[in-house]
């Protein structure tokens, strides 16, 4: 619900996950800064993706290409000219809407429709402004989503360049470089994590839709004809990745695009949607893009994008399967999924807020809590040892109960209490965030104990 979203935003701001951007200047609309806990959390999200999609995959390698690219790239990709939203303003309340979204919200998919068709449909079906109820719209205008800037000292058309609106093109233009230098054979994939920029018309819902965001994209190259098989493979792989990190199965659904909804070059597309507090939203787009992108680059650059398949003794432009995910959106999905209010004692009206994040994603893996300030010195030693291996917190302020609750709220899976007995038995008590169960563990065994909990 709206209230849950408000609570999550408040917690994020209050505990240092996400702050409003440029806040002391009154902000910059829909920009957000990741605080001390947020940066750890988002890094863990990106690390988890990299581990599954690059490190553990026998097929894939990584890349980190530049944000600024030759403008011809965007002509070839279709972003210059295309990639523009059909906008209309409500004449009564001045809110701006995407014509396709208005139609979509009325239960019809306007895939492939022209601006005129959309305009006519809206008029004929009396679709009105969701803000004010007025039915008086301007004509559709196109709006390019790419941020434009200038390279060099002169600000003329020749020096115009764009901030990339997706990371994918950096992979396509390096297809031959990567294949040649790694000597990878088809099928293989190239993964990349990095910033993308889109001048979104309707940003919002916290970090769900923002103008500066991070993407985690895989372009998986395969032999034409094997594409649907690989499409199914990566669809499963993506879903299992989310589940392995504890995302609740009932909160995700796979939505296959219907034939008429598919882009002209796509053989199949599926969105993994997540049930955010504000409703279902696209989390991950997985598309079979055939040889569209590489062919476009071959035609525009004049450089061959063909691959020589030694086994089959043939030359072809590979097909590509693209699972494309936003790091910020994944972070938001996991925050929403993990947020919980647990009634501890009904009679006392005692409710605890718990972020049930998977230990691999949690900002702190553990917090070291000395039972008394007199135990600071040896407790600090435990902290220092663990800090060499993991992000850990140290807290000696306030009652132990209050300290547990503070850690619950930020998702720390384990609280390590150093008590007076610890001096004798060289052991500490570990309290589990989710079950609140306690376990006595030797200090020397702590690193291995924590390590074992981070697997996914
Ligand atoms: P939408 O329909 O939500 O605008 P899209 O279909 O344009 O998304 P893609 O171009 O397929 O999105 O981008 C792939 C992924 O990148 C999305 O599934 C999402 O996770 C992420 N993403 C795209 N745009 C944004 C944004 N403005 N803010 C945050 N994440 C985004």
Largest sheet: 7 strands, mixed
Mean pLDDT, to the nearest integer, reads: 95
Number of strands: 23
Ligands bound, unique: adenosine-5'-triphosphate
Spatial strand order of the main sheet: 3-9-10-16-13-12-11
Organism: Solibaculum intestinale
Catalytic activity: tRNA(Gly) + glycine + ATP = glycyl-tRNA(Gly) + AMP + diphosphate
Protein name: Glycine--tRNA ligase
Binding site for substrate: 98, 166, 213-217, 322-326
Overall description:
The chain has 14 helices and 23 strands. The protein is an alpha+beta fold. The chain folds into three domains: 271 residues, BirA Bifunctional Protein, domain 2; 61 residues, Herpes Virus-1; 90 residues, 3-Layer(aba) Sandwich (Rossmann fold), CATH 3.40.50. The strands form seven sheets. A seven-stranded mixed beta sheet has the order 3-9-10-16-13-12-11, with helices on both faces. The mean pLDDT is 95. The chain binds adenosine-5'-triphosphate. Adenosine-5'-triphosphate binds next to β10, β13, β16 and α10.
């Amino acid at each position: 619900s709206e209230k849950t979203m408000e609570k999550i935003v408040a917690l994020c701001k209050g505990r240092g996950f996400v702050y409003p951007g440029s806040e002391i200047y009154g902000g910059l609309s829909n920009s957000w800064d990741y605080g001390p806990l947020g940066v750890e959390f988002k890094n863990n999200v990106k690390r988890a993706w990299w581990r599954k999609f690059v490190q553990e995959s026998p097929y894939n390698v990584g890349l980190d290409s530049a944000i600024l690219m030759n403008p011809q790239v965007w002509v070839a990709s279709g972003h210059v000219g295309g990639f523009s939203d059909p906008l209309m303003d409500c004449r009564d309340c001045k809110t701006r809407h995407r014509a396709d979204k208005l139609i979509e919200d009325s239960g019809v998919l306007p895939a492939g429709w022209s601006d005129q068709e959309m305009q006519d449909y809206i008029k004929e079906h009396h679709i009105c402004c969701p803000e004010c109820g007025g039915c008086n719209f301007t004509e559709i205008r196109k709006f390019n989503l790419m941020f434009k800037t200038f390279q060099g000292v002169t600000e003329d058309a020749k020096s115009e360049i764009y901030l990339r609106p997706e990371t994918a093109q950096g992979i396509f233009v390096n297809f031959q470089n990567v294949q040649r230098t790694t000597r990878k054979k088809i099928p293989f994939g190239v993964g990349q994590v990095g910033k993308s920029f889109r001048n979104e018309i309707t940003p919002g819902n916290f970090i769900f839709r923002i103008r500066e965001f991070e993407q985690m994209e895989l372009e998986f190259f395969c032999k034409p004809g094997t594409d649907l098989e690989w499409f199914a493979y990566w669809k499963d792989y993506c879903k299992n990745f989310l589940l392995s990190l504890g995302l609740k199965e009932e909160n995700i659904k796979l939505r296959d695009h219907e034939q008429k909804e598919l882009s002209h070059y796509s053989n199949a597309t599926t969105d993994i949607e997540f049930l955010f507090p504000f409703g279902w939203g696209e989390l991950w787009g997985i598309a079979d893009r055939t040889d569209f992108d590489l062919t476009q680059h071959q035609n525009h650059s004049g450089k061959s994008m063909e691959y020589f398949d030694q086994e089959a003794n043939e030359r072809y432009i590979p097909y590509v399967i693209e699972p494309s995910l936003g790091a910020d959106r994944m972070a938001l999905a996991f925050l929403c999924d993990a947020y919980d209010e647990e009634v501890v004692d009904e009679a006392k009206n005692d409710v605890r807020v718990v972020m049930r994040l998977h230990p691999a994603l949690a900002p702190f893996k553990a917090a070291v809590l000395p039972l008394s300030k007199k135990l600071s010195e040896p407790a600090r030693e435990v902290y220092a040892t663990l800090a060499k291996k993991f992000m850990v917190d140290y807290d000696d302020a306030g009652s132990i109960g209050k300290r547990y609750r503070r850690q619950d709220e930020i998702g720390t899976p384990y609280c390590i209490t150093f008590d007076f007995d610890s001096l004798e038995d060289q052991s500490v008590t570990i309290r589990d965030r989710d079950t609140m169960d306690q376990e006595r563990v030797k200090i020397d065994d702590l690193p291995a104990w924590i390590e074992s909990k981070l697997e996914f």
